[in-house]
């Protein structure tokens, strides 16, 4: 597995080593041993799986506040998404910066998102599935969102009329959020 650094400290793209032949392919999607070799030590406690049926579905920007903040290891197992992570760590020199990457069932790339980030994605095909590991259990009390089109962050989602949930439509701007990173 190869780890690629991004321009944001602590945010990594993971490229698995895929072994293929006439039968198909195989790869390790996670190895704590490989993560530890690179100084990344996580105790993932929950796997999440979401399916979005319509192209243009946008989910995000979501996070959990401290002390229940989550590290996420995200991959697309069906379809294609534009995956986005936003640095919400006030003390970071990349505060409010965002990073995006296409995750697809074909490229098998993964995004390792540390605590202190908001996460979201928009589906680029119909019937997309995203799977991700987290190192903290879900906590309704700590669950938060920031508006996907917050001008202070200015994520370029590449679409103009996304399919959104009521939760995401009603999310506050970052300036109105109680984010505590």
What do these coordinates show?
- The chain is mostly beta strands and 181 residues long.
- It has a six-stranded antiparallel beta sheet with strand order 1-2-10-7-12-5, with no helix packed on it. It has a five-stranded antiparallel beta sheet with strand order 9-8-11-6-13, with no helix packed on it. It has a two-stranded antiparallel sheet with strand order 3-4.
- Helices cover 6% and strands 39% of the residues.
- The chain has helices at 32-37, 166-169, and strands at 2-5, 12-15, 19-21, 24-26, 46-52, 58-64, 72-78, 80-87, 98-104, 110-113, 117-123, 128-134, 143-145.
- The chain has one domain (2-18, 26-176): Sandwich (Jelly Rolls), CATH 2.60.120.10.
- It is globular.
- The longest helix is centred in the first third of the chain and has 6 residues, at 32-37.
Q: What is the count of β-strands?
A: 13
Q: Give the strand line-up of the largest sheet.
A: 1-2-10-7-12-5
Largest sheet, strands/sense/barrel: 6 strands, antiparallel
CATH superfamily: Jelly Rolls
Radius of gyration: 16 Å
């Amino acid at each position: 597995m190869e780890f690629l650094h991004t321009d944001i400290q602590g945010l990594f793209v993971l490229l698995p080593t895929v072994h293929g032949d006439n039968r198909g392919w195989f790869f390790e999607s996670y190895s704590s041993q490989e993560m530890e070799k690179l100084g990344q030590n996580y105790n993932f406690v929950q796997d999440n799986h979401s399916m979005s049926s319509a192209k243009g579905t946008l989910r995000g920007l979501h996070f959990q506040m401290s002390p229940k903040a989550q590290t996420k290891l995200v991959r697309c197992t069906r379809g294609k998404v534009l995956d986005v992570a936003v640095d919400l760590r006030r003390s970071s020199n990349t505060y409010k910066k965002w990073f995006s990457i296409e995750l697809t069932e074909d490229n098998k790339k993964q995004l390792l998102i540390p605590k202190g980030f908001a996460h979201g994605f928009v589906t680029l095909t119909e019937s997309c599935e995203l799977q991700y590991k987290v190192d903290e259990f879900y906590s309704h009390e700590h669950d938060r969102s920031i508006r996907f089109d917050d001008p202070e962050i200015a994520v370029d989602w590449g679409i103009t009329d996304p399919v959104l949930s009521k939760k995401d439509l009603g999310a506050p701007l970052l300036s109105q959020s109680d984010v505590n990173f």
